[in-house]
Amino acid sequence: MDLIYYLGFYTALFFIPFVVYFSLFKKNSGRSRYTNRDWFYLLKRYYARKTVKKYQDRFRRKFFNSEESFDEEHSNSQLIYGVDQKGNSFSLKFTLRHGNLAEVYLSLRLADGNHYNRHVSRKAKISRHIWKINGLTMELLEPLRRLRIVFNGLLRNINVTEYEKVEHVRFNFIFNTSGSPTFIPHGMDPDLLAESLTRDTWRDGSWKDSLLDQHGYEQFGALQGFVKGDSYDDYIVNLPAVRSKLGGLDDRFLLNRALRIFLADDYGNLISLVVKSFEHGCSQLNYGSAILSSNFVLPVKGVDILLENIGSHKTIPDMIKVQIEENGCECYSIPAECDMNSNQGRAVCELWFNKTGLEDLKYSDLLFGKKVKIVPDCLVTNIKSEESKIAELAGGKGSSLALLASLNSKDYVVPDGLIVTVNAFKRQLEARPALNKVLLLLDDICCGRKDCKLEEICTETVEYFKKEILLPQIVNAILNEIDNVKMSCNMQEVVAWAVRSSAIGEDSEELSAAGQNETFLGCLTTEEVLRSVTACWASLFTFQSVNYRRQHGLPVLSQMAVVVQKMVRADSAGVLFTWHPSTSNPSQMVITSNFGLGETVVSGHSDPDTFVLNRTWDDKVCLIGSSIGAKNKVTRMTETGVEEAVVEGERWSITEEQALCLGRVGAVLEEAFGSPRDVEWAFAEGRLYLLQARPITTLTSWSEFELTHELDYPVLSDKLIFTTANAEEVFPNCASALSQTTSVRILDRAMQTHAQRHCDPYVSKSLPVSHHRVMIEILNSLHTNVHGDIKLGSRILDLAVFGHEIFDEKIHGIAVNRMGLTPVLTEVSVVVGLIRLAAGNHKTYERIRRKAAKLEMEIRPEDTLSTIHRKIQDSFGEFKRFADFHTHTSSVSVFFQVVAMIVLCANSDELTTDHYSDYALLLSSCEDVVSAEIPVYLERIAKIIREEGYSEEFCTIKPEFGVTWLRAKCPEAHSVFHEFLQNHGHRSLGEFDVMEETWAEDPSKVVLMIQTNTKYQNKANKDTLSVDEMVKKLVTPKNAVTRMIVKFLTNRIRSSVALRELSKSELIRVFSVLKLAYRELARRMVQQGLLPSPTLIYHLTHYEIGQVIQTRNPRLITNILGRSRGKGFIRSGRNSDSQRLCSAYRFPKKEDEIAVTPGDLVCKGTPVCMGTVTGRACVIQTLDEIDQLKLGDVLVTRTTDIGWSPYFPMLSGIVTEVGGLISHGAVVAREYGLPCVVGVKNATKLFSTGDIVTLCGDKGQIGKI
């Protein structure tokens, strides 16, 4: 028996592994080793996962730094893929290798059938945040948030197969992120990575190398912008997209092939999937991530795709089937259509094959200025010397000429000359203390440290410079170098000199500063040259030049070199633009020319000849157009200098061959410098001379579209629902850039935390921005709990926020698809959480109130700008805690109101007029609303003034002198005024916008309100009802139990409404601390010359302020000047459209004029406060029109905020287009017992000031008599 027992035991022990293996792991697909699992699968899986986790943990502690240097085998890459549901798609891969060698693959497909692509390999221009190559610019606007992609160049249209069609295409895109980044590899699913490694054959330990080769991150978002071609105007696109940034071993040494798939469905679900096959190592490594329509970012956990069956012969199959865990998807070719969880979608699929070596790639060196750690201590250099290539020594123009001369081309000559270096300029200043004193005074005036007329001190400074005599050592150095240059000249020749300024930063890629400083032509003697050098230095401090630097955030006390160049006795001269200056078309060059010197062309004093050249893909040029100019004035060199003459007759200034020669040289220069050039040239005796070649700086200027949409919420689907309701109360105007990146983000994070139980710091999900207007995304912030059908609670929530029902069947269907149905337990936990918050609200408020009273941002005189900026940033967490509390009190208030309304409705599913009236009556019982104290205070002050007989005198003084008048003439009123500012001085119109001054900062705004109150004695009185009296007046409760519940809820509603307004006041109080901190920072930035005006700080984002502090950025200052001038940003005025709800991306358009039929006009809205009144209508949009208001008027407006409160006692009724039952207008109207109706669509268009109207608060309607 024992023998049989042991025989059976060992036999079973032997066969069990086979049974387990074949039954559980073995997949006899016969397709590849990738799907087959070997004997040691479980052991390999365990070891692979352990290795993956260890590897991920190591990278989790090391943030990806794209600025790290790398060797020839490594590279940095940026990849962007985008696709929409219309058929537009975009893909870009920008790979940067050692020595700034770069390779770009670009593909742009438009829904109209055009398909463009481009492959570029050459050296790129790389700075800290900008990558440039051949018309393509990628600029990082804010790390992990915003990226700008601009292209202006030639692309092949591969949709045209009959011939090679090359078109000029321009596109400007801004990528805004929609979620947190997923870091590679530590953000990827470890099981998926381990599975990829486990299924491969392990022969040695090299399988681990697959995890050590590349790292970085990817992030979802949207590309928003326009495409413009020769054959069509701006083509607006909004592409859901994914952006990846990778560093590590270059793909040339790593991959066999790779498949990238990016999918987007019509509900905003995005998936990025990468499948890689390594040349030596893992045969297939899978990873990816997804962002769901509910805004959660998740790693891909499972993939079933075989790379060896796809594109093995470098052809893409007709159909690619991909199974991703929890998301089924089928993709068909490129461009692909797909199904994702039964939703239709689109995809971009790219299959990459390995391309080893650089033998087939042609790279040419670019001309760059010479970089040195220590600037040589020389006073004068020759233009062709190596030292002259140093911009810090020779200035912008001087170093550019030195680089130009270094090309040694046979096609042109750069006239010889010398550069009086920056060292000479500094040496001259060091020896002249009086001159230094004048310059310091100039700097103090420019930076606001001293008060004086800038133009006068500039004139004085220039005169000081001109009177100064050059130091002997500088004179000797100049004369010696002039002699050296003359030695190469014909001894019989009379040499004339051109003396030109070459300031630091002049003629740079960022800023041209053309024409800001002086140029002197025709200097025949050394004395003239020396005087011209001094005059050039002096021109650096003319009012024009100083103001230019000041306006662009450049140092006022700048430095200058001077170029002294031998002049050419030109037969003709002019300017060549290697790209068309008007259309920016790179296939067209424009030449303007005149006889003699080019001064008349540059200055515009004469009408020149114009030639237009066409340039092909391979830089062949031909003449396609020309127009002869009048050329009535000509500047020529003579024996006595430069003279201007009048020319008669029509003849061309240059020949066609000379024009073509210029075109060919222009193409060479553009290739050498790596960017388009503005070239000054001259022909003398048939020889071409190049006098200057500076970059064209306007090609990547920000468009109005970009300035309008640069901070927009990234729209991934047109199924997003935005509204301006409620948000427009606190942000009535376009929000400033600073507010959008500070107060809006703080409020949004609080709303995210409350509504979704988590906060994504990289995107504003609850308070999106479009066209610089703050809105609310209702599914991310309000209707977060979704049921199988529309519940009564959802409809009541709409009444509270919007004033009418908006959550219809269409939006409900979108919510179900995007958010999914909310589990019952989740709903229960939400209700329990709200009850807990309500129980502790009062204690929390007391704690918050004490904190708010003590909160201050200590900014010491010795604090640097960076320290102040860091202190402000560190305070955001504290501000969010106050925003969290206000969000909680608002939610509790709405919760009790919704419950009360449900009780009033009893078993009814329909809301009747009686329900509205009872609801309004219930809310009208709320008292002790802090915002209602404001008009009470102002009426007290006005009453004191009236009683002391100063009404007429007070109303005639200017508001800015009002406080002084009160202190001197009416101390009692001034005392109340001072008390008012202590309690409410932190409030203002648009009070959440950092740009808006508080009443304490500008009391004249309050004085104006008091003057209005003094003119008209307010008689608004509210009949106060007790809770019992109010409950008795209710119509809908049918039994005593319902009335008892309503009575209980009424007390809770009263306290919660009052607490909500108190928490809002305290939140605004702490935001006023933030405002003051930014004001102080702006003042100091102006004092240090970083900003031309303190108000410009509001047009910078918080991150951009830090960039300006760290390093002067004239391009950024130019950009914010565009913002501040209203390009894309409208500071005043409200959205004239009365529509408050819109689908994503399509911002509400202005409605057409509304035709009003003869007869009585009646409009309906939601009743807020009971009562009926007949009176004059006063229709105004903003407080700027408040002077039209008269005592007893019915105010008809779009919406109100705290700034309107002082005028409520003058009114007999209120009608608003925007707002719900908890809006500011509704709350204050109930406090004063004013009949009020909200949500009256188009009221400001249908009624006019002066109309006699009847407002019925009980029925929620207004009628024109």
Automatic annotation (TrEMBL):
Keywords: Membrane, Transmembrane, Transmembrane helix. The keyword Transmembrane helix applies. SUPFAM superfamilies: Glutathione synthetase ATP-binding domain-like (SSF56059), Phosphohistidine domain (SSF52009). Residues 1192-1260 form the PEP-utilising enzyme mobile domain. The chain crosses the membrane at residues 6-25. One of its GO terms (molecular function) is ATP binding. The keyword Membrane applies. Gene3D superfamilies: ATP-grasp fold, A domain, ATP-grasp fold, B domain, Phosphohistidine domain. Residues 392-701 form the Pyruvate phosphate dikinase AMP/ATP-binding domain. Belongs to the PEP-utilizing enzyme family. PANTHER family: PHOSPHOENOLPYRUVATE SYNTHASE-RELATED, PPDK_N DOMAIN-CONTAINING PROTEIN. This is Phosphoenolpyruvate synthase. It comes from Aromia moschata.
